[in-house]
Amino acid sequence: MRIVKYPSRQFEEGVTHFCGRPESNRDIKSVVGSILENVQRKGDSAILEYTAKIDGVDLAGGGFRIPLSMMKRAKQSLPKSDLKAIKEAIRCVEDFHKRNFPRDWNEKNIHGARVGEAFSPLDRIGIWIPGGVVPLVSTVIMTVALANIAGIREVTIFTPPQKNGSVNRRLLAAMALCQVKEVYRMAGVPAVGAMAYGTETIRPVCKIFGPGNAYVIEAKRQVFGEIGVDLLPGPSEIMIIADGKARADWVAADLIAQAEHGLGGRVFLVTTSKRLLDSVKIEIKSQVKYLRHRATIEAVLEIGFLAVLVDRIHQAVKVANRIAPEHLEIHTEQSRWDRLMRGIHNAGAIFLGNQTPTVLGDFTAGPSHVLPTGGAGRFLSGLRLSDFFRRTSIVEYDESCLERARETVEAFSRMEQLDGHRHSLRIRLQDKRRESNGG
C-alpha cells in the first residue's frame, strides 16, 4: 500500500503511476499487431498455432467450435443451487436493462418536416469471455442478457480452452441458459482477429464486447474501425470512500474481493482517518490468509493499492473524479451519500452504503458489470442496451417544408462555398414554381 495526502504533488505522482495504461506499451502493440496480421492472412491455421503457443492446447483434432450437446450436458451437470443463481442473475440483469430499451420516435422540426430516429439491433456480435484466474460465469450473463433483450440474432462467444482442451462447464451452462448457440475456444488475441476478419470456419462479426487483459484490449483497439468495439474494459478497479466510522473489516473485505480478479487490478481507499488505514492493513493481512487466491490478491495489493488521506470527506469527490474508478463504494454516514454522489461524475458504478459491496454488482444487482477502467470513466459509461443497436436518423420533407428551409440552406451554401448544395435545393423549388406557373 502506498499512502499519499490530497492535495499534494505525491498524490498526482501516485495517480500517474497507478492509473497509467500499461496495455499501451510498444511491446504489447507489436506482439498484438503481429498476431492479428497472421490471423488475417492465415486464418484457422494461425489460430491453431497461437492457441497451442499461448494456452498450451492443441485443437487440431477437435476444432474450435463447442458442440451444442456439450453445452446441454454442462447445464444438466450443474447443481440446482448454481442453476438457480444463474437464472436469478439473468432475471435481475434483464429487468434492469429492459428499462432503457431504445424506442423509435418522430417529431416535427421548425420547418414542419418529420425528423426522428429508428433503432435496429446489430446483426452479429462477438463476446470475449476471459478465462484467466477463474471462470467468469457472470460475464456471460452481463453481456449476453443484453444482447438477447436487444434481439440480436447471432451471438457468438469466444473463450480460452482449459489445459485439457475443454471449456469450464459452468461457463458452458451459463451460455446454454442464455441461449447461446455458437461458442468457440481459442486464445484471446487470435479470437479478436477471428471476430474482426473471419476465417475459413468463422464468419466475422459487427462488434466485439467483453473485458480482457492488456493484450485483448490492445487487439480490440487495433481492429476498431474494421469492426465496432465496446468500451475496452480492462483489469478490475475499486475505490472506497470511507469516513472514520467505517468498518475496517468490511472495507478490507471489499478491497480483497476486487484484488482477487488478478494482476493489473487497482484498488483505492480514500479516507479522513489514518486510524482506519492502519486497521484496514491489519484486516487485509488477517482475512487473506485462508483465501484460495491469496498469492494473486497479495500481489495486486502489493503493487496496485493507493490510499489517499483527505482532510475533509468531501475532498474525496475531487479524488474520485480525477481517478474515475470502475467501481466506487461509499462507506460514510448516510447523510453524506447524496452530496457525495451528486458531485461524483466519473465512476462506472456507485455502491451506496456499507451494506452494498461491489460483489453485488459483479454478480446479480442488475446493471452490467462491464464498466470503463483505466480512467476511461471520464468519457465512457458502462455497457448498456443501446450499445447493441444501430441508430438511424430519419428525415422527411415535403414541398412546403423545403421552402421554409430555403433561406438557411442557401446561407450555409454561401458560407461554406458549396454551390452544388444550393443547387440541390433550388432545382426542386424551380420545378415547383414552373408547375405553379402552368409549366
Automatic annotation (TrEMBL):
Cofactors, names only: Zn(2+)
Annotated residues for binding of substrate: S236, Q258, H261, H327, D362, E416, H421
Enzyme class, spelled out: oxidoreductase
Signal sequence extent: none
Annotated binding of Zn(2+), by residue: Q258, H261, D362, H421
Similarity field: Belongs to the histidinol dehydrogenase family.
Protein's UniProt name: Histidinol dehydrogenase
